[in-house]
């Protein structure tokens, strides 16, 4: 079993920046799907009445809830920006290696700026209190 042949490309394989962005895009897609479940739980707590809503609000306003909300919002910003990048790829723009790296850097910058702005708006401005 130890002497099994390896595919020839494995020995020259290198982890690429754009590959990490692609994996992160898939991960944020999963995160957003899980966030929809939390949204359904929120809507159910609103429909159930004050007691259920108070329990949900207690969780959401705690440290764990705020971290989950922050992860969801940053994931949304990244997934949106990278999704727009993918739309440009679908139209045939930005497919060269240098352009893909540049657009990836733009996606990360938009995520940091947009995510920071959204988090500030939600948490510092008192929307999620």
Commentary on this structure:
This protein has 129 residues and is mostly helical. The protein has a single domain (16-124), classed as 3 helical TM bundles of succinate and fumarate reductases (Up-down Bundle), CATH 1.20.1300. 77% of the residues lie in helices and 0% in strands. It contains four helices and no strands. The protein has helices at 17-48, 50-60, 63-90, 97-124. Helix 1 (17-48) runs antiparallel to helix 2 and helix 1 packs across helix 3 (63-90). The chain starts with 16 loop residues before the first helix and ends in a 5-residue tail after the last helix.
Name of the CATH class:
Mainly Alpha
Order of helix and strand elements from N to C terminus: HHHH
Helix content: over 70%
> Could you tell me how far the N terminus lies from the C terminus, measured between alpha carbons in angstroms?
58 Å
- Within CATH, the superfamily carries the name Fumarate reductase/succinate dehydrogenase, transmembrane subunit
CATH architecture assignment name: Up-down Bundle
Please give the domain count. Answer: 1
The count of helical stretches stands at 4
Radius of gyration: 20 Å
Q: Assign the structural class, choosing from mainly alpha, mainly beta, alpha/beta, alpha+beta, or little secondary structure.
A: mainly alpha
* Total beta strands: 0
Summarize the structure.
The chain has 129 residues and is mostly helical. The chain has one domain (16-124): 3 helical TM bundles of succinate and fumarate reductases, CATH 1.20.1300.10.
